[in-house]
Amino acid sequence: MRPSMNVYYSDHYTLPLPPGHRFPIEKYRMLRDLLLTENIIHSSDLKESPLASPELLALAHTAEYIEGMRTGSVDEQILKRLGFPWSLGLYDRSCASVGGAIAAMRDALKDGIAGNLAGGTHHSHADRGEGYCVFNDIAVATRLMKREGLAKRIAIIDLDVHQGNGNSSILRQDEGVFIFSMHGEKNYPFIKVPSHLDIALPDGTGDEVYLEHLQDGMIEVRRFDPDYIFYQMGVDPLKEDTLGKLDLSLEGLMRRDELVLSYAKRSGIPVSLALGGGYAKPIELSVRAYANTYRVAKRVFSITSVSG
Question: pLDDT for 166-195, tens place per residue?
């Protein structure tokens, strides 16, 4: 294990949003700054995310949808479901989010763990995006791993508060893939696409009940016996999240992360981190929760984050 963890960022791509837009785009840069300020990672750990090519995106998406997003000719109804106005910055940033997931995957195979300060865009389907998710980074990276023979049994542990309908619609029939989604029962998306394992939680679920269900879910992950894990570490189960409806504390989220990441480390399974959702008010609470996941990863994987 290296003394550091490579972490990919793409927040330098401009995403012009209209005034009052509810998506907290500033959280990505805030997270990068907090990780550095609190010495959770070192500046030498940070890498600029490469842009995924249309050929790579085509591993999980239709040519028509990719071209529509590239040129701005995408159907207006798709943009409405996506929740973003089209811009070249949106396309570039989305390609970088996928590129960061692929780069983190390759680094995790070598180093045991790596991260992407974006991604987890699990509502993106083959032919459309929705719910602030343009391209499905985990689906593209999973298909690439399979194509290159880098892993035979891939588990996606998706703990975003919203069910990963796009992951399931793209990957559910793929051999050697196991999708575990634990989410709010009455939350978006209101029509779920079944995963291999879905645990739907009632509104107001708190730390202890949440962690009991997670332990049950991890039994099934262990039974699947993966040789790679994508961890969608969405922090929107946090009590203060405006889109969450669950009742987790910051400490509860850290215990969640400890459970998942300790399993990966103990079992020698490479794992890459995808950011997922976080919409707390104030947004600083989501940023703190994201940083805490990296704090847990640093401890579990005995990362020193030295310079050089």
Answer: 999 999 999 999 999 999 999 999 899 999
**Can you spell out the DSSP letters for the chain?**
--SS--EEE-TTS-----TT-SS-TTHHHHHHHHHHHTTSS-GGGEEEPPPPPHHHHTTTS-HHHHHHHHHT-S-HHHHHHHTS---HHHHHHHHHHHHHHHHHHHHHHHHSEEEESS---TT-BTTB-BTTB-S-HHHHHHHHHHHHTS-SSEEEEE-SSS--HHHHHHHTTSTTEEEEEEEETTSS-SS----SEEEEE-TT--HHHHHHHHHHHHHHHHHH--SEEEEE---TTBTTBTTT---B-HHHHHHHHHHHHHHHHHHT--EEEE-----BSSHHHHHHHHHHHHHHHHHHTT------
7-300: CATH topology is Arginase; Chain A (3.40.800)
pLDDT tens by residue, 200-249: 999 999 999 999 999 999 999 999 999 999 999 999 999 999 999 999 99
Domain layout of the chain by residue ranges: 7-300
Per-residue confidence (pLDDT) for residue 307, from 0 to 100: 43
Task: State the pLDDT at residue 308.
Answer: 36
